[in-house]
Design goal:
The protein has about 325 residues and is an alpha/beta fold. The chain has twelve helices and ten strands. It has an eight-stranded parallel β-barrel with strand order 3-4-5-6-7-8-9-10, surrounded by five helices.
Length: about 325
């Protein structure tokens, strides 16, 4: 396992990390979560991603209980959580990054995780109704209180991220250090174009999610929606159209030909493609079985096989976002 700095932050994250969205509570209890966490940790993973909203707080509870039972030294791993959607329907508790919500959010997460602090806390989505300055100050205060060590953004526009950085610099506050965007072969324009100035001018880090496009890039949806898949879970009906789109499925089948030639699985090739980007600090992977954890981690061995010719072949299948020069 290789480790990369989270942008210009001092901490280093494993190039492949383990996320709990969908799997924890929906597919994994404490026992099975413990098995997957243990397998990832033994393979060198040191960053474990969660969020307050995942399974309405139950994912944090399972993650905290499993880690407590594993008994790992706290300095040997990193944990993140996120806020925006909230767990209740109160006017100040849903879809907001106001100061009240953020301060109450971190307190609740630490209780569920059974931890004194998290290493990284994300603003899970932008909040156009709350001044960015209020959010920046609240995140700074959370860090100053020792409840989190760094803060970051997720799916923010580059413009809003730069505004937050400039506010923090103006008032000598803790700046956001990384963005958590979706990045995969089907979704690459924002990461590669809009965020380019963040990486170039501000040394921003990234913890990318959905390298497999919610499982589409594993090939398992080629003949429909399997009963044990993410798209078959209650509440994930919105994935159906994406997972059965003929054009997308045709591209996945074409990619499998490349994967077979390289001697790797479709999932490993898709993850390796994301990992090869130098602006990626870590690729968040998900897994509901130990075998999946091991398969995902082995993707790191595929990166060296991605020659310019192979990358050109992949671009030919999926298309490449136009550059500024085009």
């Amino acid at each position: 396992m290789e480790y990369r700095h989270l942008g210009r932050a001092g901490i280093r994250v494993s190039e492949l990390s383990y996320g709990t969205w969908v799997t924890f509570s929906h597919q994994l209890d404490v026992k099975h979560g413990l098995e997957c966490l243990g397998a990832a940790y033994d393979l060198g993973v040191n960053f474990f991603d969660c969020a307050e909203v995942y399974a309405d707080g139950k994912a944090e509870e399972i993650l905290g209980a499993a880690m407590k039972e594993l008994g790992w030294r706290r300095g040997s791993y990193l944990v993140s959580t996120k806020y925006y959607w909230g767990l209740h329907d109160g006017v100040n508790e849903r879809n907001t990054l106001n100061r009240k919500r953020l301060i109450e959010g971190i307190r609740g997460s630490l209780q569920r995780l059974q931890m004194e602090y998290v290493d990284l806390v994300f603003c899970h989505r932008p909040d156009p109704t709350t001044p960015i300055e209020e959010t920046v100050w609240a995140m700074h205060n959370i860090i100053e209180r020792g409840q989190a060590l760094y803060w970051a953004t997720s799916e923010w526009t580059a413009e809003d991220i730069i505004a937050a950085i400039e506010i923090a610099e103006r008032h000598h506050l803790h700046k956001p250090v990384a963005e958590q965007p979706e990045y995969n072969l089907f979704k690459r324009q924002r990461f590669e174009q809009e965020y380019a100035r963040l990486f170039r001018d501000h040394g921003y880090g990234s913890t990318t999610w959905s390298p497999l496009a919610s499982g589409l890039l594993t090939g398992k949806y080629d003949k429909g929606i399997p009963g044990n898949s993410r798209a078959a879970l209650k509440g994930y009906d919105w994935l159906h159209k994406r997972m059965t789109d003929p054009d997308r499925l045709a591209k996945v089948r074409a990619l499998k030909t490349t994967a077979d030639r390289l001697g790797c699985t479709l999932a490993q090739l898709a993850i390796a493609w994301v990992l090869r980007n130098p602006n990626v600090s870590t690729v968040i992977t998900g897994a509901s079985r130990v075998e999946q954890v091991r398969e995902n981690i082995a993707a790191a061995n595929v990166v060296t096989k991605l020659t310019p010719e192979i990358i050109g072949e992949i671009d030919g299948i999926f298309g490449k976002p136009p550059s500024d020069e085009d």
